[in-house]
UniProtKB/TrEMBL annotation:
The lineage of its organism: Eukaryota, Metazoa, Ecdysozoa, Nematoda, Chromadorea. GO terms for molecular function: nucleotide transmembrane transporter activity. PANTHER family: MITOCHONDRIAL NICOTINAMIDE ADENINE DINUCLEOTIDE TRANSPORTER 1-RELATED-RELATED. This is Uncharacterized protein. It is found in: Membrane. It comes from Caenorhabditis angaria. The keyword Mitochondrion does not apply. GO terms for cellular component: membrane. Solcar repeats lie at residues 6-95, 101-189, 205-286.
């Protein structure tokens, strides 16, 4: 079965729904990833012995809702990012046409669309990081929600403060490029194996495998940018640039410090990617079918 003509609007709706669904399911994993990535051994932070210990201590002091700190910017950022990413990816791809191999074209389109999305969403990701790094052992909360976090950031650091971590974020767009290129490559190969037209509808199990494999590969390859961005955006430490953070991490934690939190990131990203892409494919298909009818 081949998809009817799919518009950029269908990709936008599909990506938006996928982003919301995956965030609601996986946000607690994201909170743990951010806290472990930010931890440089500073004793002012909670020193968790592991992921289960972190969950236990957070729930003991703040209740289950403590695992959902930063949920509002997380939902907003994920839905906008995925919606615009899927839409702009195909718009850019259609405008550029075929410039080289399919894999190279996918990487270029992924990088360009990811960079454009980052220009819009970096302030949202900064507030998410800072809300997630309000620890349960702090007597008072510095920020009272996403809007208050943005206001205080602009007041204390200027408008440019909302774009802390932007450089590693741009570098991190290669994550989306690698993931999307790998996902589409596997999808195209599967269609060839089944002797189906390109972009034909495949089984849910195919989307599950393709999204999982592409996400794990992309996350592991590009994870250092997430550590650097988290540490740049952390309001609990002095302001440092990307090179100073890189040097300090390598000096005091070794090369493995750049992958701190990678395991929980992959645990989080796996179901998130599956939910996002399966939702995206099905919502896109639904939009196309409704329009056809």
């Amino acid at each position: 079965m081949k998809f009817p003509d799919v518009s950029a609007y269908d990709n936008l709706i599909g990506g938006f729904c996928g982003g919301v669904a995956s965030t609601l399911v996986c946000h607690p994993f994201d909170l743990l990833k951010i806290r472990f990535s930010a931890n440089e051994g500073n004793l002012l932070r909670p020193q968790y012995t592991g992921y289960l210990d972190a969950v236990r201590r957070i729930c003991k002091i703040e209740g289950f809702r403590g695992l959902y700190q930063g949920l509002t910017p997380s939902i907003l950022g994920s839905s906008i990012s995925w919606g615009l990413y899927f839409q702009w990816y195909y718009v850019i791809k259609n405008k550029l046409g075929k410039t080289g191999s399919e894999e190279i074209d996918n990487l270029i389109c992924g990088f360009l669309s990811g960079s454009a999305v980052m220009c819009i969403t970096n302030p949202i990701w900064l507030t998410k990081t800072r809300l997630c790094l309000q620890y349960e052992n702090q007597t008072t909360k510095k920020f009272d929600g996403m809007i208050d976090c943005m206001k205080q950031t602009v007041k204390n650091e200027g408008f440019q403060g909302l774009y802390r971590g932007f450089v590693p974020g741009i570098i991190g767009t290669t994550h989306g490029s690698i993931q999307f290129a790998a996902y589409n490559w596997m999808k195209d190969k599967r269609c060839q194996m089944l002797e189906k037209p390109k972009d034909s509808y495949l089984a849910h199990s195919d989307y599950l495998v393709f999204s999982a494999v592409s996400k794990i590969a992309a996350t592991t390859m590009t994870f250092p940018y997430q550590v650097l961005r988290t540490r740049m955006q952390d309001h609990n430490t002095i302001n440092r640039g990307i090179w100073q953070i890189t040097r300090d991490t390598l000096k005091y934690e070794g090369i493995s410090g750049l992958w701190k939190g990678c395991i929980i990131a992959n645990i989080r990203q796996l179901p998130a990617a599956i939910v996002t892409f399966v939702t995206y494919e099905n919502v896109k298909r639904l939009c196309s079918s409704t329009k056809r009818d």
